[in-house]
Amino acid sequence: MEQSSPVIPLRPLTFGELLDAAVQLLRTNARLLLIVAFVLAVCEQAALYPLRSAAGVDGTMDLFTTDDGGVWWLVFCCGLTAEGVVLALLGGLTGAAAGPALLGTPVPARDLLRQWGRRAPALIFLALFVGLILLPSAIVALPWFYFFGAIGLAAPALVVDRVGPGAALARSFNLAPVGLRGVAIRLGSYGGWAAIRVAIGWGTGALLETVLPRDALVSQVTTVAVWILANTVVYAALACLDAVLYLESRMRVEGLDVAVGRSRRLGRPVDLAQAAVLGGVRR
Question: How much is the mean pLDDT over the chain?
Answer without folding.
Answer: 86
